[in-house]
Amino acid sequence: MAPLSLVTASVSLLAKSFSVLSCTSSLARYSSVLPTAYVSTVRCLTTQTSGPPKRPLNGYMRYVQQQQPIMTRQNPEIKANDIIRKIAQQWRIMTPEQKQPFEEASQQARKQFKVELQRYQAQLTPAQVEQEALEKRQRMAKRKAIRKKRELTNLGKPKRPRSPFNIFMSEHFEEARGTTTQAKMKSLLEDWRNLFSHQKQVYTQLAEDDKIRYKNEIKSWEDHMVEIGREDLIREQTLSTKKKLATRAAKTGTKKAQAANKASATGKSKTNEKAAKSSSTKTVRTTKKT
C-alpha cells in the first residue's frame, strides 16, 4: 500500500494539471473569438500565497498597452506623456465596434479575476483577512489624501512657507555633491550644519519673509473659499478664530444693547420724575391762588 504522503502528492499534482488544462482551453477559445492584433494574451491567474491576484486592465488600458510601444518606435522624439495623450485622443474617436475587442478582453479577464480572487480569499486565515482590510483602508486613505491635495492645487491654495534649510537646499541643489537625490540632500545637510550663524541668518530672514507671504495669501484664499461656499477647506484654527470673534461681537452687541436699554430706562424715569415734580408744583400754585 502506497504511503499517505505519496497519495497526497499525486492528488495535488493531478489537481494542478486539471487547472492548467482548463486555463489553456479557455485561452484557446478566447483567442479564437478575438483578432490577435487586438488581444494580448490573457494571463491565467493562479492561487497566490504572497498576495491577492492583480486586477485586470480595462479596455482603454489594454489599448494603451498595445499602442504605446508602437507609437514610441514611430515617434522616438515625443515624450511619454505626449504619446499617452495621442493614444487617448485615438481612443476617444474610435467607434464602439473598434473598441469592442478590447472591452471583451477586459470582461473575460474580469471573470477570471473574480474566480481567482474567491479562491485566494478562501485560503486566508482570520488574521490575514484583518490585515488585508487594514491595508485596504490605508490605501483608500492615501488615495483620498492625494485627491484632496490635487483639488487644493487646482483651487490655487498657497504653498506653505519654507524653512531656512529648505531655502538653502533649493538654492544649492544643482551644484551639490552626489549623483542621486538622496546623496545630494545628505551633502547639503552637512554643508548646512557647517555654516556659521551669520550665514544661516540670511536664510532665516528669508524664511520669516516667506511666512508673512503665506499668511497674507492664505487669508485671501480662505476668504475666497468662504465666498464660493467651500468652508470645508478652511483650516480649523481659522474657523475657531472666526467663531471666537463672532462670539465676542455678539457679546459686545448684547452689552451695548443692555447699556442702551438701561440708559433709555434711566432717561424715561428722570423724565417721569420731572413731569411729576412739574405737576405737583402746578397743583400747589393753584391751591395758593384759591
Automatic annotation (TrEMBL):
<dbReference type="InterPro" id="IPR036910">
    <property type="entry name" value="HMG_box_dom_sf"/>
</dbReference>
<feature type="signal peptide">
    <location>
        <begin position="1"/>
        <end position="19"/>
    </location>
</feature>
<keyword id="KW-0010">Activator</keyword>
<dbReference type="Pfam" id="PF00505">
    <property type="entry name" value="HMG_box"/>
</dbReference>
<feature type="region of interest" description="Disordered">
    <location>
        <begin position="241"/>
        <end position="290"/>
    </location>
</feature>
<keyword id="KW-0539">Nucleus</keyword>
<keyword id="KW-0597">Phosphoprotein</keyword>
<dbReference type="GO" id="GO:0006357">
    <property type="term" value="P:regulation of transcription by RNA polymerase II"/>
</dbReference>
<feature type="DNA-binding region" description="HMG box">
    <location>
        <begin position="53"/>
        <end position="121"/>
    </location>
</feature>
<feature type="DNA-binding region" description="HMG box">
    <location>
        <begin position="158"/>
        <end position="222"/>
    </location>
</feature>
<keyword id="KW-0496">Mitochondrion</keyword>
<feature type="compositionally biased region" description="Basic residues">
    <location>
        <begin position="139"/>
        <end position="150"/>
    </location>
</feature>
<keyword id="KW-0732">Signal</keyword>
<feature type="domain" description="HMG box">
    <location>
        <begin position="158"/>
        <end position="222"/>
    </location>
</feature>
<feature type="domain" description="HMG box">
    <location>
        <begin position="53"/>
        <end position="121"/>
    </location>
</feature>
<keyword id="KW-0805">Transcription regulation</keyword>
<keyword id="KW-0809">Transit peptide</keyword>
<protein>
    <recommendedName>
        <fullName>Transcription factor A, mitochondrial</fullName>
    </recommendedName>
</protein>
<dbReference type="GO" id="GO:0003677">
    <property type="term" value="F:DNA binding"/>
</dbReference>
<keyword id="KW-1135">Mitochondrion nucleoid</keyword>
<feature type="compositionally biased region" description="Low complexity">
    <location>
        <begin position="247"/>
        <end position="263"/>
    </location>
</feature>
<keyword id="KW-0677">Repeat</keyword>
<dbReference type="GO" id="GO:0042645">
    <property type="term" value="C:mitochondrial nucleoid"/>
</dbReference>
<dbReference type="GO" id="GO:0005634">
    <property type="term" value="C:nucleus"/>
</dbReference>
<comment type="function">
    <text>Binds to the mitochondrial light strand promoter and functions in mitochondrial transcription regulation. Component of the mitochondrial transcription initiation complex, composed at least of TFB2M, TFAM and POLRMT that is required for basal transcription of mitochondrial DNA. In this complex, TFAM recruits POLRMT to a specific promoter whereas TFB2M induces structural changes in POLRMT to enable promoter opening and trapping of the DNA non-template strand. Required for accurate and efficient promoter recognition by the mitochondrial RNA polymerase.</text>
</comment>
<keyword id="KW-0238">DNA-binding</keyword>
<keyword id="KW-0804">Transcription</keyword>
<dbReference type="InterPro" id="IPR050342">
    <property type="entry name" value="HMGB"/>
</dbReference>
<comment type="subunit">
    <text>Monomer; binds DNA as a monomer. Homodimer. Component of the mitochondrial transcription initiation complex, composed at least of TFB2M, TFAM and POLRMT. In this complex TFAM recruits POLRMT to the promoter whereas TFB2M induces structural changes in POLRMT to enable promoter opening and trapping of the DNA non-template strand. Upon metabolic stress, forms a complex composed of FOXO3, SIRT3, TFAM and POLRMT. Interacts with TFB1M and TFB2M. Interacts with CLPX; this enhances DNA-binding.</text>
</comment>
<dbReference type="InterPro" id="IPR009071">
    <property type="entry name" value="HMG_box_dom"/>
</dbReference>
<feature type="region of interest" description="Disordered">
    <location>
        <begin position="139"/>
        <end position="165"/>
    </location>
</feature>
